[in-house]
Specification:
Length: 154
């Protein structure tokens, strides 16, 4: 077969499939949207401010509760002020996490690492105020995944 015969054959095949099984009108737009939205839940964790209390019932402590989720894994953080203007971060994850990392700073990053208990609970003590990100590494279905929270202020 020559190249011209191939071109003719392929043109006839395209015409046959176009008539027998046409492409849905919205397929291209749906595919573009699906590709654009793919993996967004891993790139942008949902930040939900659950509770923001200033001034607890006893004392002048500040407390903040935050929840982050990527649709598969959720992390709950409860931040309280401790002595000397530092913060205590109590957290819970709903899946087994191998490692939880707290990162602070812009130019020089301060990194603290911990592993949660079997219940998913973990603590970071004596954390200075500032912009913070929490990352946790989980294994879901044999696949290692990382959930990184958006930056938030302690």
């Amino acid at each position: 077969m020559s190249a011209q015969d191939d071109d003719t054959l392929f043109a006839e095949l395209r015409a046959m499939w176009r008539d027998a099984d046409p492409v849905p009108d919205t397929l291209v737009e749906r595919m573009i949207a699906a590709v654009a939205a793919d993996d967004l839940n891993h790139e942008y964790a949902l930040l939900t401010l659950i509770e923001d209390r200033l001034g607890a019932v006893r004392g002048d402590t500040d407390a903040l509760t935050l929840q982050f989720s990527d649709g598969t894994t959720s992390i709950l953080l409860h931040v309280t002020a401790s002595a000397g203007g530092l913060r205590r971060v109590d957290g819970w994850v709903d899946t087994s996490a191998a490692e939880i990392v707290l990162v602070q700073g812009d130019e020089v990053e301060t990194i603290r690492t911990t592993s949660p208990a079997e219940t998913g609970r973990f603590v970071f003590d004596e954390v200075p105020p500032g912009l913070t990100t929490v990352r946790l590494t989980t294994t879901v279905g044999g696949e290692e995944r990382t959930l990184a929270t958006p930056r938030f202020e302690l």
